[in-house]
Specification:
alpha+beta; BirA Bifunctional Protein, domain 2; 16 helices; binds magnesium ion; 16 strands; binds adenosine-5'-triphosphate; 2 domains; 8-stranded mixed sheet; 5-stranded mixed sheet
């Protein structure tokens, strides 16, 4: 029987203080998307299974074995979204956002894939993503990559590699697929079982194989970059030129394909060597065929998605510190009258100092116990309101964090009307800004 006090495998809690990093990431992401004119779209977590089959592709890992699919009470097949691009296109079509228009959209939220859980790979995970519709040229591919680069930089991340490839037009891809299959057939004996199966169903995905022997075989395989059609070549050259103009370094990787069928032309990934084999933190590309494939009129599209858990792991690995969300002030009180006044004072200080993080002692306790809680809360300052202070309309202001000050400067009396300025000064100094 399921243990009631255990989460479902691969579904994780995120606890404070780590959630401070998540909030920081969310804030930085929202600012960065806004800096490029992207509007947020909120999409449902559940869609008709057919949407994902039709968009991601029937013979991809995601659709073949990773989706959480079930029948609802009406017998309809529904799936928890494994990614959001399909939903974004569906929402765009349903709400008339795509026909003859340009759209710049972003989203954030949980995705679900039934994979083997390990560091950086979970069954519920979170993505941040951006999608742009209605623009054919490499300028928008460039913008999306520049946006991702800025986001990673603003998060304080470094040592990431931008890997870049072009999958060409669907004709070029078909010709390349044939050449690849021919080459691999000649070495079929050396292929792993999964790749053998894909030889029939989805040979390009073999390029993505993690099996060393297969990888070795691929070193001499024909590459898609040799097979590019002229238009895709010009598009790809334009993108590379743009990246050089902006000083964004990249590495061409002709074996980079993506795990979803809908990509063509540009594909890219931001990778790190600091997270073991879960090294891709952001991935995307152009998917000009998808909107029509889902029943809309032909609409160029390009986008990317980034794995939030992996970004957080990398932020931790690289020592990124989020702005603290710990309380700044802990308000203690002794006695019933002081407790009532403390509640009022707490509300007033939060009114006067918007953004102030103040914890009001609750559940009573002797002053020593309250000060212990204050210390454990991480607050910089304890305010103490006892009978004497109450009578004087004052509080004791006790610094909890200076170790080198004399005891007299660690605890001082302040009248209530002075408190706002006293705290503002103290908090400013203790925040180091
Ligand atoms: P991978 O090759 O690592 O399985 P993918 O190609 O399946 O990745 P995408 O569908 O492109 O991944 O999703 C974009 C990003 O979402 C990935 O680069 C990764 O950062 C993140 N991601 C994908 N699957 C998971 C997962 N199961 N757990 C955590 N993050 C994930
Ligand atoms: Mg995957």
């Amino acid at each position: 029987m399921a243990n009631l006090f255990q989460s479902v495998r691969g579904f994780n809690d995120v606890l404070p203080p780590e959630t401070a990093l998540w909030q920081h990431l969310q804030t930085v992401a929202a600012e960065t998307f806004a800096a490029y004119g992207y509007g947020e779209i909120k999409l449902p977590m559940l869609e008709h299974t057919a949407l994902f089959k039709r968009s991601i592709g029937e013979v991809t890992d995601i659709v073949e074995k990773e989706m959480f699919t079930f029948e609802d009470r009406e017998g309809d097949s529904l799936s928890l979204r494994p990614e959001a691009t399909a939903s974004c296109v569906r929402a765009g079509l349903e709400n008339g956002l795509l026909h003859n228009q340009q759209q710049r959209l972003w989203y954030a939220g949980a995705m679900f894939r039934h994979e083997r859980p390990q560091a950086g790979r979970y069954r519920q995970f979170h993505q941040l993503g951006a999608e742009a519709y209605g623009m054919t040229g490499p300028d928008i591919d460039l913008e999306l990559i520049a946006l991702s680069a800025r986001l990673l930089k603003r998060l304080g991340l470094s040592n990431l590699t931008l890997e870049l490839n072009s999958l060409g037009s669907s004709d070029a891809r078909a010709a390349y697929r044939a050449a690849l299959v021919e080459y691999l057939m000649r070495h079929e004996g050396a292929l792993d079982a999964d790749s053998k199966r894909r030889l029939q169903s989805n040979p390009l995905r073999i390029l993505d194989s993690k099996v060393p022997q297969t990888q070795a075989l691929l070193a001499d395989a024909p590459t898609i970059l040799d097979a590019l059609d002229d238009e895709s070549r010009a598009h790809f050259d334009g993108l590379q030129q743009g990246l050089q103009d902006l000083g964004i370094a990249f590495a061409l990787n002709p074996r980079l394909v993506r795990g979803l069928d809908y990509y063509g032309r540009t594909v890219f990934e931001w990778t790190t060597t600091e997270l073991g084999s879960q090294g891709t933190v952001c991935a995307g590309g152009r998917y000009d065929g998808l909107v029509a494939q889902l029943g809309g009129s032909a609409t160029p599209a390009v986008g990317w998605a980034s794995g939030v858990e992996r970004l957080i792991l990398l932020m931790k690995a690289q020592g990124v510190v989020a702005p603290s969300l710990a309380p700044q002030v802990y308000l203690c009180s002794v006695g019933d009258d002081a407790r009532r006044e403390a509640a009022r004072l707490g509300e007033r200080l939060r009114d006067e100092l918007p953004g102030l993080r103040l914890t009001l002692n609750a559940g009573g306790g002797k002053l020593a116990a309250q000060l212990k809680r204050a210390d454990r809360s991480g607050a910089q300052v304890a305010l103490i309101l006892g009978e004497t202070e109450l009578a004087a309309g004052a509080v004791q202001v006790k610094s909890l964090r200076d170790t080198n000050n004399t005891s007299s400067s660690q605890q001082q009396t302040a009248l209530w009307p002075e408190l706002k300025d006293r705290l503002a000064g103290l908090l400013c100094a203790s925040n180091g800004n």
